[in-house]
From TrEMBL:
GO molecular function annotations of the record: urea transmembrane transporter activity
Bilayer topology term: Multi-pass membrane protein
InterPro entries: Ammonium/urea_transptr (IPR029020), Urea_transporter (IPR004937)
Keywords of this entry: Cell membrane, Membrane, Transmembrane, Transmembrane helix
Full protein name: Urea transporter
Domain of life, per lineage: Eukaryota
Length: 218
């Protein structure tokens, strides 16, 4: 879904260009195969595959087509560093808006109120998941200065080839954070293959920590 969305966003062939269905299906299948290949590798460190396949496949697609492709042209990416000016003023309302927007960006949503609706849907499914999503997004917002610098650097680097940075910065930073905290938080980690709703995870972990060795839960 993410690959198909970005193919449509970057396409310069105009609206309702139905031929985009072909690369959307092919790249979607490719990302699935890449996911299957990366999962056993990252599972050694109990790390999620995250959106590594999406970032890799969309860059490969844009690299293979190019802005002047007669069938699948796309808009060239502009390096952010060339347009962005240094501003040391901290806008508190915008910073706070980054918390719900951080959740909405998972669905390529950049508006505030649709992101709030997404949070409401998550709240209905699992209150704990909603709380952790807000806490995680809040922590990510505070730690995003590092990710922002990485995003600018990658945007400048890939922009020289007319390619977007996608979400490489966020993906690399979160993977690095998981690697650095793997030892300290290992007692709280749940194997990737057994992750379910937060309520069930909490129950299973407390059951396991209580010494019930007969339980099949984590």
């Amino acid at each position: 879904m993410l690959v198909a969305l970005l193919i449509g966003v970057f396409s310069s062939a105009g609206d309702w260009y139905w031929w985009l269905l072909l690369p959307a299906c092919l790249t979607g299948a490719t990302s699935t195969l890449l996911f299957s290949g990366l999962a056993p590798l990252l599972d050694r460190w109990d790390l999620p595959v995250s959106v590594f396949p999406f970032n890799t496949v969309i860059l490969l697609y844009l690299s293979c087509t190019g802005p002047t492709n007669p069938y699948y042209p796309h808009h060239p990416a502009t390096p952010k560093g060339a347009l962005q000016h240094t501003n040391t003023t901290l806008n508190i309302p915008q910073l706070l808006q980054g918390v719900p927007l951080g959740v909405g960006q998972i669905y390529a949503c950049g508006a505030l109120w649709p992101s709030v609706l997404i949070l409401v849907a998550v709240l209905l499914f699992s209150p704990l998941l909603c709380a952790h999503a807000l806490l995680g997004s809040g922590a990510g917002t505070l730690a995003a200065f590092l990710s922002a610098y990485a995003d600018i650097a990658l945007s400048n680097l890939l922009g020289m080839a007319g390619l977007p940075a996608c979400s490489w910065a966020a993906t690399l930073i979160i993977t690095l954070m998981l690697l650095l905290t793997a030892q300290n938080l290992s007692v709280y980690r749940i194997p990737i293959g057994r992750v379910t709703t937060p309520e069930q995870n909490l129950y299973s972990h407390s059951h396991w920590a209580g010494g019930n060795t007969e339980s099949t839960d984590v």
